[in-house]
Amino acid sequence: MASQEFEVEAIIDKRQHQNGKTEYLVRWKGYDKEDDTWEPEQNLTNCEKCIYDFNRQQMVKQKKSTGNRTRTTSSNNIRKRTSRTSTSSFSKNFPRRTLTGKPHKSKNNQLRETHQNFIRS
């Protein structure tokens, strides 16, 4: 049986499994949001530009979010915004530690994977 080819409208999200395989959440052209599917990278042929654009946008978002961190604290019912800087005395006095172990999975990713597995079964 010949496999059908569908056109990718956009890459919505990306996830990496513990075995190192990358999957992309694909929005298919002519289909609704409910029809988005997680596809392994090797299944996405002829859409390298979509993948490149998605990864480039993610890098830009990540740079913006890490360069502009602020912390909100509450004191006497007055909210103050304080900026974190990498030149604080704390970071000068204490060496950086590298963490090793399993990659962290957020609760949202775990719920999303469980939901996708439930839908597939």
TrEMBL record:
The keyword Nucleus applies. SUPFAM superfamilies: Chromo domain-like (SSF54160). InterPro entries: Chromo-like_dom_sf, Chromo/chromo_shadow_dom, Chromo_dom_subgr, Chromo_domain, Chromodomain_CS, Heterochromatin_chromo-domain. Residues 6-66 form the Chromo domain. Residues 67-77, 84-93 have a biased composition (Low complexity). Residues 60-121 are annotated as: Disordered. It is found in: Nucleus. Pfam families: Chromo. Keywords: Nucleus. The keyword Nucleus applies. This is Testis-specific chromodomain protein Y 1. It comes from Saguinus oedipus. The lineage of its organism: Eukaryota, Metazoa, Chordata, Craniata, Vertebrata. The gene is CDY1_45.
